[in-house]
Amino acid sequence: MDEELLKAYCRSAYRVRLGSGGAAIIRVHEPLPVALRPLAGNRDWGFFTAWNPHSRPQPPAINREAQRRLLADLRADASLDVHPALGKGTDGWREPSFWIVGITPDALERLGDRYGQNAWLSGHGAGMAELRLR
Questions:
Q1: φ, ψ for residue 36 (rounded to 5)?
Q2: What distances in angstroms separate CA 15 from CA 73, 95, 113, one per listed residue?
Q3: What is the DSSP letter of 98?
Q4: Is 104 in contact with 94 (CB distance < 8 Å)?
Q5: pTM (two decimals)
Q6: Angle between helices 60-75 and 105-115 (to 10 degrees)
Q7: Are 26 and 99 in contact (CB under 8 A)?
Q8: How close are the terminal C-alpha atoms of the chain, in Å?
Q9: pLDDT by residue (tens digit) across 31-79?
Q10: Would you kindly state where each structural domain of the chain is located, as residue ranges?
């Protein structure tokens, strides 16, 4: 993976929409924000998108359709809690995403393969957000 792309992933803000309004920001190598901890509990979680596979920009219609398929896949598993989110880079990059509570690292890896993603975040409970690379 390109070193600049890796740095961009690490500098990005991973925003999760809060039910009460506003957002909590997850950052790589930092603990889960306090506002998200009650939602995560002692479960695994991930931050994932289907947008721009292999970090290559795609037309908006293709990205939206991939994101719809991802949401359908996630909703098919009733054990998952899926929250709207947005990945936002320092250079203006932004991708609609999901913060998924109850998803295992293996399941995230399978999604990465299916949706052609280079990277995603994962964590457990209030622990550190880790960048996972494919």
A1: -95, -15
A2: 21, 10, 23
A3: E
A4: no
A5: 0.95
A6: 150
A7: yes
A8: 9
A9: 999 999 999 999 999 999 999 999 899 999 999 999 999 999 999 999 9
A10: 3-133
